[in-house]
Amino acid sequence: QLQFVESGGGLVQPGGSLRLSCAVSGLQVNYESIGWFRQAPGKEREGIACISTTDGDRYYGDSVKGRFAISRDEVQNTVYLQMNDLKPEDTGTYYCGVDRAPCEVVDVDDLDAWGQGTVVTISS
Fold first, then answer.
1. Cα angle: 30, vertex 6, 1; to 5 degrees
2. Distance of CA 82 to CAs 20, 72, 86, 100, 120, Å?
3. Residues 106-124: what's their mean pLDDT?
4. Residues 57, 51: contact at Cβ < 8 Å?
5. Residue 47 and residue 107: Cα distance in Å, rounded?
6. Phi, psi (deg, nearest 5) at residue 88
7. How distant, in Å, are the alpha carbons of 16, 39, 53, 77, 80 from that of 73?
8. 74-90 mean pLDDT
9. How far apart are CA 81 and CA 22, in angstroms?
10. Euclidean distance between CA atoms 85 and 96, whole angstroms
């Protein structure tokens, strides 16, 4: 059974940084992509970052390009999201997920599996 353990969320002032972690276990399917999406109260899911499990290519949503960085430890089956220069609009629950589709076409509203999420709050 696929399991996700997400951590690293918290309350940070604008301009600060956070590093999210997601340990994935029980992988029995060859997922093409692993990444992060977020959801703020009353808003739709937003794809944040994705990393290809085949070639390591990285993809980012326009709102986080240049501020966030996704990385992956294949040995530990852990994916990270380094978030810098955080803004109040980055507030939300952050989820990691996997999909059999490649990052270029993955649909965050139709992922194969995702975790319980970790809450990020950016406020002064």
1. 40
2. 6, 11, 10, 24, 12
3. 95
4. yes
5. 8
6. -55, -35
7. 24, 25, 11, 6, 8
8. 96
9. 9
10. 21
Q: Is the pLDDT of residue 40 over 90?
A: yes
Determine the Cα–Cα distance for residues 34 and 30; give it in Å rounded to an integer: 11
Q: Which residue has the tokens 């059999």?
A: 100
Note the residue count of the chain.
Answer: 124
Tokens found for residue 57:
């290519």
| 26 or 39, which is more confident | 39
DSSP-based helix, strand, coil % in the chain, nearest 5: 5, 50, 45
Task: Calculate mean pLDDT across residues 65-78.
Answer: 95
Nearest to 108 by CA among 95, 93, 92: 95
